[in-house]
């Protein structure tokens, strides 16, 4: 192996590549402890039936414990049902969404919430709302003519 030699420039690039990979790994590990939430695949709804099956037939927000809420929403052409959700500041909200028609999306500004909503499937994602105010949400998957009017808001009310 007397002829084996790595050029200093090549060595530099190899070290830089390894450092970048390590940095990405650390970023993933760190975000796992700071509210990183992958969209989960929670279950299935028979295609076309999400508009009639509970809890999506009458979408609602349920309090499951102190400051813990579950919100059930339908994303459909071309609205969210419901299109307004109210929770007190400091709440952790788990969203469950499904679609009775075509593929939609659900993105809430200033949060980690950004999921696709696929017909026949239930998407699940959790976020915490500490700051009072309005957090608009919208459909971020093109779903037809009135895609652009598909929006709503989470109203986070100050604690009294
Ligand atoms: Cu629903 Cu775009």
Write the layout of secondary structure elements.
Blueprint: H1 8-32, E1 40-44, E2 61-65, E3 68-76, E4 79-81, E5 84-88, E6 91-98, E7 104-108, E8 114-117, E9 121-129, E10 133-138, E11 151-157
Parallel strand pairs: 3-6, 5-11
Antiparallel strand pairs: 1-9, 2-3, 3-4, 6-9, 7-8, 7-10, 10-11
Dinuclear copper ion binds next to loops.
**CATH fold type of the largest domain:** Immunoglobulin-like
Give the averaged pLDDT, no decimals: 88
Helix residue percentage: 10-25%
Low-confidence stretches: none
How many domain regions?
A: 2
Query: Main sheet?
Result: 6 strands, mixed
- Terminal CA distance reads 75 Å
Give me the CATH architecture of the largest domain, please: Sandwich
The class by helix and strand makeup works out as alpha+beta
Order of helices and strands: HEEEEEEEEEEE
* Quaternary organisation: single chain
Name of the level-1 CATH class of the largest domain? Mainly Beta
Task: Give structural notes.
With 160 residues, the chain is of the alpha+beta class. It folds into two domains: 1-36; 42-157, Immunoglobulin-like (Sandwich). Helices cover 16% and strands 41% of the residues. It has one helix and eleven strands, in the order H-E-E-E-E-E-E-E-E-E-E-E. Strands 1, 2, 3, 4, 6 and 9 form a six-stranded mixed sheet that branches. It has a five-stranded mixed sheet with strand order 5-11-10-7-8, with no helix packed on it. The longest helix is centred in the N-terminal third of the chain and has 25 residues, at 8-32. The chain is elongated and about 75 Å long. 21% of the residues are buried. The model has no long low-confidence stretch (mean pLDDT 88). Residues 75, 78, 104, 139, 141-143, 147, 150 line the site of dinuclear copper ion.
């Amino acid at each position: 192996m007397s002829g084996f030699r790595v050029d200093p420039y090549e060595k530099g690039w190899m070290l830089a590549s390894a450092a970048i990979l390590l940095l990405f790994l650390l970023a993933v590990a760190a975000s796992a402890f700071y509210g990183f939430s992958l969209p989960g695949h929670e279950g299935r709804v028979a295609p076309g039936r999400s508009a009639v099956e509970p809890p999506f037939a009458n979408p609602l927000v349920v309090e499951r414990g102190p400051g813990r809420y579950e919100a059930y929403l339908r994303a459909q052409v071309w609205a969210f049902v419901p299109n307004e959700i109210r929770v007190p500041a400091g709440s952790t909200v788990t969203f469950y969404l499904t679609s009775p028609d075509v593929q939609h999306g659900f993105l809430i500004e200033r949060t980690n919430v950004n999921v696709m909503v696929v017909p026949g499937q239930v998407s699940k994602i959790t976020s915490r709302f500490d700051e009072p105010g309005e957090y608009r949400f919208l459909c971020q998957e093109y779903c037809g003519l009135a895609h652009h009017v598909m929006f709503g808001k989470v109203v986070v009310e100050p604690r009294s």
